[in-house]
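Friendly challenge for the regulars: who can give me the structure tokens for this chain first? No prize, just bragging rights.
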Amino acid sequence: MQVYSKGRKPIVFTQTKKDADEISLFLNRVLGAEALHGDITQVQREKTLAAFQNGKFSVLVATDVANVDLVRNILCFLMP
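First reply, four minutes later:
Bragging rights claimed.
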């Protein structure tokens, strides 16, 4: 399994679950990305977060289900 992350772990926040799914599918084609939102079971959310922390994919696309207190870096993607 390819490990993409080398210390930097970008998170893209979206307003809707649909946006999180669509953006993660788009980014997964080139970067490796997964979605995290309320329609995903708690067990799967925990697996997704663990995989993200372990560098199994490079970008996490999430709604506010991620419950973060601080965003250090903002990463913007423009979709055609």
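Strands lie at 11-13, 33-36, 59-62. The chain has a mean pLDDT of 78. Your move, everyone else.
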